[in-house]
Amino acid sequence: MNKNVLIIGAGLTGVLLAYRLKKQGISVTVLEARDRIGGRIYTHLSAQETPIEMGATWLGQQHTALNQLLQELQIPIYPQYTEGSAWYEPTAIQAPQEVMLPHNESPSYRIQGGSSALINKLAEGLTKDELYLHTVVTHIKAHNDAIEVVTKNKTFTASTVVSTLPPNLLATSIQCSPPLPEHLMAIAKKTHTWMGASIKFGVSYPAPFWKKHHWSGTLYSNVGPITEMYDHTTVEQDKYALKGFLNSELSALTKEVRKEKVLAQLERTMGEEALEYLSYEETVWHEQPYTTAPYENFVFPHQNNGQTIYQKVQYNNRFYIAGSETASYYGGYMEGAVRSAQQCFERITKK
Ligand SMILES: Cc1cc2nc3c(=O)[nH]c(=O)nc-3n(C[C@H](O)[C@H](O)[C@H](O)COP(=O)(O)OP(=O)(O)OC[C@H]3O[C@@H](n4cnc5c(N)ncnc54)[C@H](O)[C@@H]3O)c2cc1C
Question: Residue of the nearest CA to atom 19 in ligand 1?
Answer without folding.
Answer: 333
